[in-house]
Amino acid sequence: MLAGLAKCTDLCGKRMMKRLVSYENLLSCITRDESHHVATLDWKAFLHLSPILRLRRREARAALRKYLSGLQGAKWEVDTVRFPIGSQIDEQALNSITGDIAGALDAIATKAMTPKEICKALKITNQERLRWTKDGRLKTSGVVSFRRANTVSISTYSAHAIHELMKDHSVIEGWRQKDLDSRKS
After folding, report:
1. What is the pTM of this model?
2. Are 87 and 37 in contact (CB under 8 A)?
3. Can you list the residues of the chain whose pLDDT is less than 70?
4. Which secondary-structure segment (H or E) carries 32?
């Protein structure tokens, strides 16, 4: 399942997963208005390019608002974010801001996913998720525990693996067909 997933190497030589929120995708949703010295991020278009972030849009929006609160003159409008740029387009400053935003949003997008998020992202039932986790088709990435009256533990799933499944929904359909065929036998 993860065989085709591109990997990259950081400066320390450690292998890490590729970003789910790329600088290029973010930059493609930014327009520049040199006459008014403003750059505009089309939030709706950006979320369309990032399906996992679309699931976590509230958290992503809050992180973006927090980042922009430190940026003088930044304004959040209905589905756009406007932030000031120098009197002449300062590519380095715009690239720095865009890189920071992409990094903050990627941190949210790559967090382990909960069972509820998995079902919503893959459009599967909880029974399917449980069956496919149990038989190893859907791999867990860890466990999160929290305390209520008792300690409750839930499995988490890799955002990268789920992203790959979201790109090719035929895998899910194949799993469903396999389950249907095994019930008929």
Report:
1. 0.78
2. yes
3. 1-17, 86-90
4. strand 30-33
